[in-house]
Specification:
Length: 199
């Protein structure tokens, strides 16, 4: 493992750096890293992401020089966390294993508008002064979390709205109208058989 000056090694890993100055990384061989925040750091991260709990998080990989002007970070994110079910709000456990890749390029500028053409490699980013493992791990976790966690057997209920004193229409009430809509569509698509010859 290449020893690299750490700007900050306090995020639950006193013995290993979590922030690397890119200017201090080896230009010839990979720099290996392993980031695993302690319970307090996981609690803070879970709170910031709106999670009920973050039981485990490990982010391991390496930063490899790629030519003279680029570096590539490749890593594996492994996490276990609890999210609130969107129906019942009970905890739903998510187990995540995700490959992460970032390519940092010196002299690359970030797009200033959505109209600018995106690079072919969407993992490319401008070379930062500092590579923050905690920040990258948090971003990767956000991107891989289930969007709509649902507990087993939990189903979204039917929502009906109607003015006071009026019985609302439910899904079962609307089924006949849906059938009429389908029938109307079929009639509209039926070709003219020439039966209406008109004068």
């Amino acid at each position: 493992m290449t020893d690299v000056p750490a700007e900050n090694a306090s995020d639950g890993m006193a013995a290993r750096p979590t922030r690397f100055r890119t200017g201090g990384l080896s230009p010839r061989k990979p720099t290996h890293f392993s980031y695993a925040p302690d319970a307090e750091a996981r609690r803070r991260l879970a709170e910031s992401l709106g999670l009920l709990g973050l039981q485990h998080l490990a982010f391991t990989g390496q930063i490899t020089p790629d030519g003279r002007d680029a570096m590539v970070l490749t890593a594996t994110l492994v996490a276990e966390c609890d999210q609130a079910c969107i129906v019942t709000l009970v905890p739903v456990r998510a187990r995540i294993t995700e490959a992460v890749r970032r390519r940092y390029v010196a002299g690359l500028t970030a797009p200033e508008s959505d109209e600018m053409e995106m690079p072919e490699d969407d993992t490319e980013e401008p070379m930062p002064e500092v590579i923050d493992l905690a920040e990258i791990a948090a971003e990767a976790l956000v991107l891989t979390l289930p969007l709509y966690p649902r507990a087993p057997g939990a189903e979204l209920g039917e929502v009906v709205v109607a003015p006071k004193g009026v019985t609302p229409l439910g899904d079962s009430d609307l089924k006949p109208f849906a059938g009429l809509s389908v029938l109307a569509g079929r009639l509209a698509a039926k070709p003219d058989d020439g039966s209406d010859k008109g004068g």
